[in-house]
Design goal:
53% of the residues lie in helices and 16% in strands. The protein is α+β, with helices and mostly antiparallel strands and 326 residues long. The chain folds into two domains: 31-144, no CATH class; 190-321, no CATH class.
Length: 326
């Protein structure tokens, strides 16, 4: 079921991103391939030519720029700033325009969407004509942007986190092998049976409808003991066996009994004495002290278990939550 939930969330994210992207394309939000009028000034004595890399200054009318993108906010006056140019011909150059706070906020969004690591908006400049000795009338066209949202969901979201999951999983191998080995030694040494013996008096009070010598009681005790030690692989089949045995005591198959609900709550909250998985994840993530989570984890899971048992015992007394099992 969890796999279907994750798949649904991924599809929902893709659909939402795609709908936003289509809306942006229809409204021409980024004015793709539409040139912006600018004035370009090159350094002293430099003429545009293929293969030259130079720094120049770009002058742009901020009011015109905001109007160009259909924005309500309007800045007055001209703004001049330095720009790096790489000429491919005497009339065309690749430009890196540093985005500043005076510019429309949409330029920040466009810069983040481009596959570059700096805070500069990539685009091309076409020289229209010479306006003075070192000054040219030109047009700046930012690189076109399409399906930004979909790229973020797939590349920055799905692919990135899938890669992170693999990295964490590989990092967990060593520490998980260590803790599972320790737990296996503890299991063979009889620690699980010792905990089970200590739990039996409590279990008989929590499950008054289950006979003390019934197989369901034994399976539940072993399941809870394994969970407390972080032996999830051993706990799972024991939990299934416990439910199977509890169902044999059920007078109305298909309707959960009080014992089933109580066991499910305990199994879900599960007091953790040694949270091996959490310790392994912290170690894999580079934690300086991965085992410091043990005491907080014991307190948190114990509190959750007490709250869960209290809730289920109170709710099972209410007529609205009960079914006739006769």
């Amino acid at each position: 079921m969890l796999n279907y939930i994750w798949l649904g969330l991924i599809l929902a994210g893709i659909i939402a991103a795609l709908s936003t992207d289509v809306s942006d394309l229809l409204s021409d939000k980024y004015r793709n391939e539409k040139p912006i009028d600018i004035v370009l000034t090159l350094e002293d004595g430099i003429e545009p030519a293929a293969g030259k890399e130079v720094d120049g200054t770009m002058t742009i009318n901020l009011e015109y720029l905001h109007t160009f993108y259909g924005l309500d906010r309007v800045e007055d006056g001209l703004h001049t700033f330095t720009v790096h140019l790489t000429f491919s011909s005497s009339e065309k150059a690749v430009a890196r325009v540093p985005v500043q706070e005076e510019f429309p906020s949409i330029w920040d969004e466009m810069t983040e969407a481009q596959p570059t690591d700096d805070d500069a908006l990539a685009g091309s400049i076409i020289i229209v004509n010479r306006a003075g000795t070192e000054t040219y009338n030109a047009e700046f066209t930012p690189d076109p942007l399409r399906f930004i949202g979909l790229q973020r969901v797939t590349n920055d979201g799905i692919v990135s986190y899938a890669s992170t999951a693999v990295t964490i999983a590989i990092g967990l191998i060593g520490i998980m092998a260590l803790w599972l080995g320790v737990m296996k030694v503890a299991e063979e040494a009889g620690l699980v049976q010792t905990i089970a013996s200590g739990l039996r008096p409590i279990m008989t009070r929590l499950f008054p409808d289950v006979p003390a010598n019934h197989p369901a009681m034994g399976a539940m005790i072993l399941n809870i003991s394994a969970n407390m030690l972080g032996l999830a692989n051993a706990a799972t089949p024991l939990g299934l066996k416990a439910m199977e045995e509890l169902n044999k005591l059920n007078k109305k198959v298909g309707t959960a009994t009080d014992a089933m609900c109580t066991f499910l709550v305990i199994n879900t909250s599960s007091v953790q004495l040694i949270p091996a998985t959490v310790i392994a994840i912290r170690a894999s993530a580079g934690s300086a002290n991965p085992t410091e989570i043990i005491v907080p984890m014991i307190l948190a899971t114990a509190t959750a278990t007490i709250a869960g048992i209290t809730a289920v015992k109170l709710l099972q007394r209410l007529p609205v939550y009960r079914k006739q099992l006769d």
